[in-house]
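User: Run a structure prediction on this.
Assistant: Running it now.
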Amino acid sequence: MNWDAIGASGEVFGAIAVVISIGYLAIQIRESTRTAKLAATRDLFSEFHLAVSANSADDIITEIWLVGVRDRSRLTHADRFRFGQMLYRMLAAFEQQYLHLQENTISSKYFEAQIGAFEATVTYPGVRDFWEANKKIFHDDFQRYVNDLIRSTPETAADEFKPKRIDIDV
């Protein structure tokens, strides 16, 4: 019996087993990463949806939102605070999406789908006014992103503002 040949065969089989184990581990890590991205995307979507849908919770809130996006100064002090809270919550949710995208922890396809809604929001004078007054509470990278978006997106004149009706068939 050639012990050297048996030892060499054992080393070859051991090396093959290590390569297979590493391949399997790589597949598991990739799947775990994909699952984590989907979970983060779902959570961020839920938070953004809650923030946006709060703007139409009832007739009073909707009116505050519609007046505020046109001209924040037309709101009472209390309603300006409510409008600011609604807008802050929406901006903070979008900021989280943006920062997750920068870290590659959410799907870029999801983020790209949200950009249209966000671009439409930053066209409103009341939103731009709020942003200018409060942008320092947001992350520097997000500030640059929103500032660039505002510079590249024309403002909707307050007297031209007409909310679009969106009908959704369920």
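The longest helix spans residues 3-53.
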